[in-house]
Amino acid sequence: MFMKSFFKYVLATVTGIVISFILLVVVGLIIIGGMISSMTADKAATVADNSLLHIDLRHQITERTIPDPFEELDVPGFTTTKSFGLNDILKGIEGAKDDDRIKGIYLDLSAVSASFATLQEIRDALLDFKSSGKFIVAYSEGYTQRAYYLASTANKIYVNPEGTVDFRGLASQTPFIKGTLDKLGIEMQVVKVGTFKSAVEPFILDRMSDANREQVTSFLGSIYNHFIDQVGASRHLTADSLRTIADGFLVKTADDAVTYGLADGKRYKDELLAELKDSLAIDQDKDLNAVALTKYKPSVPSNRASVRDRIAVVYAVGEIGPGEGGDDMIGSERISRELRKVRRDDKVKGVVFRINSPGGSALASDVIWREVDLLRKEKPVIVSMGDVAASGGYYIAAAADSIFAQPNTITGSIGVFGVIPNMQGLMNDKLGITFDEVKTGKYADFLSNVDRPLTADERNILQMEVNRIYDTFIQRVADGRHLSKGQVDSIGQGRVWSGEQALANGLVDRLGSLDDAIAAAARKAGLEDYRLVTYPAIKNPLESLLGGSTDRISVWFAKRELGEQYAYYEQVKNTLRQRGIQARLPYAFDIH
């Protein structure tokens, strides 16, 4: 017995040493990569005269470019997914508009992963670039509908002769897991407020409820109408003709795309390059001068550093929860602290609160709301909504002076819910595990045990708490939007709206971009000359790594192994870490 234990501990020790060594090597390589990245990050690519700006959006598009040492790590057998911030994409396009060295843009749209509100920001920037008289050429072997939304801004759209343009209309699909839970013997016990608060439906139904189908049909139709109108205006096609093309699935080949006016011609890559050289009067035996958007650094006026007055842009990105959060999760402590900073900074004269969030913890949302309300009493606060600012994401926006959204932003979802799993069937019947306990009071084990159903009294307590939080939520919105609680309740009930619909029902004030919101904040603050400052501060790659190396490494490996399926893993993980009453979107929307 002694020898058996001895060898077991020796084996465990050796295994631990090997794993630690491997992790140490990986972390060491990452730190070196981060140091190299930090040293080279500010080096801009050389831009020659008579150049093209090459825009390739196959990267993951985030709100801001967050330096990531993992992107610089080159380990055989491992690949990384690079990310690029919307802020730098827009800055690059704007800079290229006034850069005499850049004559046009080459849109390389092999893959585009952003949602429609983010694409709207990029699309608007491309149209503004075109207003300078410079040209845009789009090319792809096959356009997705998201890619085509951007491509439609181009002077010329070319497609590979064997490729096509996907133009079939928009769809949104939801997975329902009630059948799986039933097989496992797990019952999800739901308390909620809101006819349309469908966050819980995947747990308790096997298809959409009538109310949920109504709201999805409504906001998806609104986004599709805007998509059709924008594409039609750029391509000089009527909305009816575009709907006919989509409804009949008339575009299946590159020839179809040209026939119906979605593309201007078919080209192989070499033919495209030859045409671009002709456009720039470059000899065919010479190379094109092109600079990648990811490497392009527009020149910044040198006198900006001397400007004292500032407009602060505070970014809140991800699900809302307590604590510090991170680059892709809104921690109530961290964001509240940043809002206090700008409130106390005399140089900051106005604030733009950029929100891209499906919501989360109702309590954490209220903590952030409080800081926004205090800030608004001292300085102008303008909210700029990204792809989504719904439920808790709308909660934290409600106290602002004004709210800007894109027509295809997902917002609203003013509702509250709680879900308590009852795993008695799984534990008792499937696994043969039973529990017994001693308690000192009737409610001593309330919410701590998941091996039994809620009693009628416990469910009533939860329902009253959900009702109370919903009442607070609609009061916050009513006060911020100068509406009655009855009016808010009528457009609340958990219902999701597009930005265009939210403008009509009073939940937002203007349709516009982040730049529009910044301009509005400056006007309200009475500023003509100002500097932009952003919060929270972006850490350099090494600081970011050392601040949470274990989590970053685990995420890096998970993304590497799961690829596109990582999003589903992340949804499950976020669901499991939910605590308390939630104010969040029904589920993750993926419109395609």
From TrEMBL:
Indicate where this protein resides in the cell: Membrane
Alphabetical UniProt keywords: Hydrolase, Membrane, Protease, Serine protease, Transmembrane, Transmembrane helix
Protein's UniProt keywords contain Hydrolase:
yes
Q: Which positions, given as ranges, span the membrane?
A: 9-36
> Per its UniProt record, what InterPro entries does this chain match?
ClpP/crotonase-like_dom_sf (IPR029045), Pept_S49_pIV (IPR004634), Pept_S49_SppA (IPR004635), Peptidase_S49 (IPR002142), S49_SppA_67K_type_N (IPR047217), S49_SppA_C (IPR047272)
* Domain Peptidase S49 residue range list: 129-280, 375-527
Family as reported in the entry's similarity comment = Belongs to the peptidase S49 family.
Q: Which PANTHER family did the record assign? A: PEPTIDASE S49 DOMAIN-CONTAINING PROTEIN, PROTEASE 4
- What protein name is recorded for this chain? Signal peptide peptidase SppA
Species, as recorded: Parapedobacter defluvii
